[in-house]
Amino acid sequence: MAFIELKNLGQKRDGRHILSGVNLSVERGESVALIGPTGAGKTTLLRLLDMLDKPATGKILIDGVNVTSSEKERLATRRRMAFVLQKPVVFNLSVYENVAYGLKWRGLDRHQIREKVNHILETVELTKYSKRNARTLSGGEMQRVAIARAIATSPEVLLLDEPSANLDPVSSAKIEDLISKIIRENAITVIMATHDMAQGQRLAHKICVLVNGEIVQTGNAQQIFELPKNREVAEFVGMENILDGVVATNKSGLAVIKVGGKEIETVTKFGAGKEVSLCIRPEDVTVALARLSSSARNRLAGTISWVAFNGPLCRLEIDCGFPLIALVTKRSAVEMKLKRGVKVYGIIKVVSIHVIERQD
Fold first, then answer.
1. Torsion of CA 103, 104, 108, 113, to 10 degrees
2. CA gap 33, 207 in Å, rounded
3. What are the per-10-residue average pLDDT scores of the chain (360 residues)?
4. DSSP 3-state assignment of 261?
5. Strand (E) or helix (H) holding 355
6. What is the pLDDT of residue 279?
7. I need a surface site. Which of 96, 221, 323, 359 has the fewest CB within 10 A?
8. For residue 56, what pLDDT is reported?
């Protein structure tokens, strides 16, 4: 039995479906990232988990108990959870008093509160700010106060809504490190909504992709980012090369697919005549000036149509009769004199191509 189970969960707002048919299992101590475009329903799902709203359909089970069945169950469940909002909410009190707030409500004595708050302030690296008014801190520091206040009550479940949104890179990295530390050191289940896909990869054991209020794919980082279930997921996770084609032949799983007048070999279950889309990550395209002999079966001739440098990397597009995006190091691009108009080969291994059914 999973610790948390969502069964056919749905929510409506103004007669419109915000969530529909959401099913999800979360194990105790697991960290889960909810990713998806703006308006996909991530925050709505967190609010349902925190019992702030009632679902229109379905139920939430914790340890096998339907916690949406009564107000008594809902209240008891809220005491087992903590929710940190996207915009940090801090009281007009000192940092110390902010963190101590929930502990006072739970009846801990002054000595217990002092010991626990001091330990948590050390964990979030805010000890030197303990006497400062929390509202005078920076955005990143206020977010750390909000997280500290949330974990002070030792919740079983920590819910985070875009924990590093609108923060500068340094503050964002500190929040990420803090969340990682909490996950590592505490027997706590973490469910977070994030627009930052790389953050989801780094922090979560499991990733759920929400699109239009539905969970369209659940899996680990490799499954989500390298093996997207459909075109919607592929586009959202940054699979820049999505090439439409038709399976010409398939012999024992090794297929030849016609794309833009060229043939690409890959492994797939789809048979001859099937309309498909090939998903290829830019970093899996090797750029060469000659048709090198290698184990890669696909060597696509083309001409560079544009080049863009970004720090130590170089992103370029090869016109092969269809656009093919490749990612190489800046050093390689300079050494190979890659620029617009240069003829090159885009080399792709069979195993680097993920095939999905084409969507109309």
1. 70
2. 5
3. 94 90 95 91 95 94 92 90 90 94 87 92 93 93 93 93 86 89 88 88 92 94 90 89 96 94 94 95 93 79 95 95 95 94 95 89
4. coil
5. strand 354-357
6. 95
7. 359
8. 94
Pairing, β 189-193 against β 157-161: parallel
Q: What is the DSSP letter of 351?
A: G
| 326/323 Cα distance (integer angstroms) | 10
Please count the residues of the chain: 360
Residue whose tokens read 């190979």: 336
Q: What is the rounded distance in angstroms from the CA atom of residue 238 to the CA atom of residue 231?
A: 11
Helices 139-152, 110-123: crossing angle, 10 deg rounding: 140
CB atoms within 10 A of CB 291: 11
**Alpha helices in 160-238, H assignment, sequence order:** 169-185, 197-203, 221-226, 231-236
Task: Report the predicted TM-score, pTM, of the whole model to 2 decimal places.
Answer: 0.86
Residues 330-360 as b/e (b if ≥16 CB within 10 A, e otherwise) read: eeebeeeebeeebebbbbbbbebbbbbebee
pLDDT at residue 199, as a whole number? 87
CA distance 73 to 188: 20
Residue 319 identity: D
CA dihedral angle for residue 200, residue 81, residue 70, residue 105, rounded to 10 degrees: -160
Rg over CA atoms, the chain: 25
Hey, what are 20's tokens?
A: 């529909």
State the angle between helix axes of 169-185 and 139-152 in degrees (0 to 180), rounded to the nearest 10.
10
> For residue 121, what pLDDT is reported?
93
